[in-house]
Amino acid sequence: MGHMSKTFGIFVVLAGALFILTGTASAQCSPSEDGDAGPNTITCSGDVTPADGEVEGVGDDDSITNNGTLNGGIYGDGDGAGGAFAGDGGNDNITNNDTVNGSIAGDNATGSGGNDTITNNGFARRITGDGTGSDGGNDLIHNTSNGTVIGDITGDGIASGNGGTDTIINDGTVESTIVGDGGSGVANDDVITNNGFVQNIEGDGGSGGGADTITNNGEVTFDILGQAGDDVVNIKIGSQVGGTIDGGDDTDTLNFTGTATQADIDAINTVIAGCGNPCGGTVSAGGQTYNFANFETLQNLLTLFVDAGLDVSVFLDGAPSAPATNEICTGAVKVFRLPNGDLEVFSGFDILVPNGFLVAKIPQAMQQAGGVFSNADAPIAGWTATLEIIDGSQKIVGRDAAGNIINQDCQW
Length: 412
Prior knowledge:
The protein is mainly beta. It contains 2 helices and 42 strands.
């Protein structure tokens, strides 16, 4: 039931005279709190307390936006009276820009769920893609950097049938758990990415197991649990996981991603080399300690870290160009990073040639591979530059024709 426009009377007494002022108070959800059988666009603002506890679309493809304080919940599909819609849910779009003191759900339906998009830019108690009695839809749930959810975010909370293939992205704060599949239905393949803060992440809470992909680039206070299914867990070096990263049953893969120092890369390679099947253990890298268990495959997908340095002008073959690159370091050689990631090495600085000459190039692909590299692209005969590991540090090394080191001050 929607708020109807109400006529009000105000009685004012001035100098013994009685005046009656009349006016109209506008409904706070436009056109009403609940939709009808057709596609609906509902926008709420101000302080709203729905008569039946929910703002609801009713089947079909609905768009619901909350810009105020909603003292209740939002269903993309319901029956218009706070209950479940009798049938399949539509493909709904729900956006919260302020406060929802209740749950947000794409579908509350007896049939299959639609493919819903839920965006939370404010406060919500919990978010669920599908709360259906049958199969779930393929939903996208995004808790933005401005979003806070004090309960769970769940892709599917279905009672029976198959869960959908859901995508859940957290850039904000979730004060409980992100779950790909909950309820008692059969789990499906979900993608969960955490770039913000969350207490726990679970791939599957339902029966069966989906092949889930879980990525942590932010902070997880306690555990990441793949649970059943062939899961892939990606851990960015430097991200936080306070508890255990557990692949669970079946055949699971743990990937270490991001940029790292050579020492971190070596530490992870050592753990991988000593792993059994399944593999469990502890590794310290990027200032964090990661505890993991029940993974059949571990992979090092790290890129060697190179410091970007300071913005300076670039000189190519002695000729100045636009200041569009970065100086890594300056010594007997100068090393610059080009916009495409390649390194260029200059030497031969004197009063006549203050900018030096280009003596070597080290492509980005060679930097990422690690190890020692010679470079034949050197205009000055007999002068080469190599990217080497010396005393555990990455260094640009200048060598003469005989291979003797003439500079190793340029390092990061």
